[in-house]
Amino acid sequence: MGDSGPEEAVKGVVEDVKGKAKEVAGIVTDNDGLREEGQAQQDKAEAQRNAAKKEAEAEAAHAAEKAAEARQKAAE
């Protein structure tokens, strides 16, 4: 997989903060381009957080599968 789940989550939070700052700056300065850029950055942040969540879920499922296999081998 690409970046690790926690790294992707942190990147998502950072992107969200930067996006919110740009959006607010765009609103305050009446700059629609900057406001829209901030919104787009927040959308990217949400996608990164969602990807991190999915990756963490997949890793947890894989770990559970490995644990079940180990228990099964131990029981044989």
From TrEMBL:
<feature type="region of interest" description="Disordered">
    <location>
        <begin position="28"/>
        <end position="76"/>
    </location>
</feature>
<dbReference type="InterPro" id="IPR036629">
    <property type="entry name" value="YjbJ_sf"/>
</dbReference>
<feature type="compositionally biased region" description="Basic and acidic residues">
    <location>
        <begin position="32"/>
        <end position="76"/>
    </location>
</feature>
<protein>
    <submittedName>
        <fullName>CsbD family protein</fullName>
    </submittedName>
</protein>
